[in-house]
Amino acid sequence: MERFNRMLQAAQGMGMSNAAPGADAPNLIDNSETVHISSLALLKMLRHGRAGVPMEVMGLMLGDFVDEFTVRVVDVFAMPQSGTGVSVEAVDPVFQTKMMEMLLQTGRPETVVGWYHSHPGFGCWLSSVDINTQQSFEQLTPRAVAVVVDPIQSVKGKVVIDAFRLISSQTLMMGQEPRQTTSNLGHLNKPSIQALIHGLNRHYYSIAINYRKTGLEENMLMNLHKH
Questions:
Q1: Which residue range or ranges hold the MPN domain (predicted)?
Q2: Residue 113's closest CA among 134, 91, 86?
Q3: CB within 8 A of 102, min separation 6: which ones?
Q4: Domains contained in the chain, CATH given
Q5: Using CA atoms, how far apart are residues 90 and 129, in angstroms rounded to an integer?
Q6: Residue 39 backbone dihedrals phi, psi, to 5 degrees
Q7: Residues whose CB is less than 8 angstroms from the CB of residue 165 and which lie 6 or more positions away in sequence, other chains included
Q8: Among the listed residues 76, 61, 46, the one whose alpha carbon sits nearest the alpha carbon of residue 153
Q9: Model-level pTM?
Q10: Using CA atoms, how far apart are residues 206 and 218, in angstroms rounded to an integer?
């Protein structure tokens, strides 16, 4: 696992060189931060999630931090493990290390911006195990994002997906409000009761997600549930 952490830190160092100043600052102002997910990454996450039903699946997200307001996800790759209940089993550090080595060899400019996993049939929120996993990602990259997708509820073009980041312990100790979406563009999704019960806005907060699809990609998404 230590070898993988070193590889991940090296990749983060290459990718974060293009990040905006202050992108890794622990105390960011409230803003309309958005996670932009490419159609390729979205389709791969949904297909991976549906292939693993009824088990949970997990993967890493590749992209970059464009600025303090934008996280871009351009691709994902699946991890060879599954989970039971509401938590994914421990990741395979050997597989992750080999993937990171191959990515560095190909010279791809993207870095690891977070991870994704599926909640087949029970909505988008973070369990205690998910929170611990996200904490390990944020120790390497403070702006790392945890994306949760529900492949069961995502049918016929409707995608049930959400992105989360932990609320810092300093914020909790000082009793400050967590970061909020302040943009007046689009609309805000009402949090589910399950998410609120499992710590939304107490241990972690939601980040707006944006994804655009062409007509062909829309057809692929609508036919995804048939496969």
A1: 35-170
A2: 134
A3: none
A4: 2-19+28-226 (3.40.140.10)
A5: 10
A6: -60, -40
A7: 134, 138, 143, 144, 145, 146, 204, 205, 207
A8: 46
A9: 0.75
A10: 25
Here the tokens at position 116 are 């994704």
122 φ/ψ sector (left φ>0, alpha ψ -120 to 50, else beta): alpha
The C-alpha atoms of residue 63 and residue 76 are separated, in whole angstroms, by 9
Peptide bond into 151 cis (omega under 30): no
Query: How large is the C-alpha radius of gyration of the chain?
Result: 17
In angstroms, the CA 107 to CA 88 distance is 30
pLDDT band for 212, please (50, 70, 90 cuts): confident
Q: Backbone phi, then psi, for 84, in 5-degree steps?
A: -115, 155
Quick one: DSSP state of residue 20? P
**What is the Cα–Cα distance from 7 to 66, expressed in whole angstroms?**
22
| Mean residue pLDDT across the chain | 77
pLDDT per residue over 48-99, tens digit each? 999 988 889 999 999 999 998 899 999 998 987 766 555 555 566 677 778 7
> Is residue 26 pLDDT above 60, yes or no?
no
